Amino acid sequence: MDSSPSLTGQFLLAMPGIGDPRFERAVIAMCAHDGEGALGIGIGATIEGLRLHDLLEQFDIDPGDVPDAPVHFGGPVEPRRGFVLHSADWSGQDTIDVAGRWQLSGTIDVLRAIAEGRGPSRWLVALGYAGWGEGQLEAELTRHGWFNTPANTALLYDTDVYERWAEGFNAAGIDARLLTGSSGTA
User: Fold this and answer.
1) What are the contacts of 176-179 at 24+ separation with CB within 8 A?
2) Which residues lie in coiled coils (predicted)?
3) CATH code of the domain occupying 10-178
4) Is 64 left (phi over 0), alpha (psi -120 to 50) or beta?
5) 55: left (phi > 0), else alpha (psi -120 to 50), else beta?
6) Hey, where are the domains in the chain?
7) Could you count the other beta carbons within 10 Å of the beta carbon of residue 30?
8) How far is CA 109 from CA 83, 112, 115, 116, 151, in A?
9) What residues have CB less than 8 Å from 78, skipping those under 6 apart?
10) 5, 40, 83, 167: which could join 30 in a potential S-S bond, CB 3.0 to 4.6 Å?
11) Measured distance CA(38)–CA(10) in Å, rounded
């Protein structure tokens, strides 16, 4: 039985020198974490040249008055699969509550609702996700890779995407400018 605490509803922040360029300065909103593995959605980078209206057009959804928001790089797993992190004021057929902090939806109904102005009041769209198998994330947390911090929805909705990494550390009382990707020897 794994007794480590669940990271569901927290943020993972990539440490400098994580060793995987896909995760440099990554901010991952953890949506599920249990003994079988973990799943998170990246919120610290956007996909260049792809915006919400482009996605809606691919599904023949009229964007209406919805802002043409950037689409986030959710992670390297299933990069064509879409997810929406959103406020709890809307729920669809597959919506999952994430520790009472935000909701996760992954079907087209949430995009239709957003475009029609009847969706969640706060939302963020991503393609792909970050996933870990059984015990994999716990092992990465014991090495120089990830820092976890309690979730603050202001980081999701009110912080510029490229400032989320530094702000995540700042909220934990750490000045990210002082972090280094290497360590010394004694």
Assistant:
1) 179/15, 179/16
2) none
3) 3.40.1740.10
4) left
5) alpha
6) 10-178
7) 23
8) 11, 5, 10, 10, 26
9) 128, 129
10) 40
11) 12
N residues, the chain: 186
Tokens read off for 178: 């002082």
pLDDT tens sequence across 117-172: 999 999 999 999 999 999 999 888 887 789 999 888 999 999 999 999 999 999 98
- Supply 119's token pair: 């969706």
DSSP-assigned letter for residue 168: H
Count CB atoms within 10 A of the CB of residue 93: 8
Q: What does residue 35 show for φ and ψ, rounded to 5 degrees?
A: -65, -20
Per-residue tokens: 142 = 């014991």
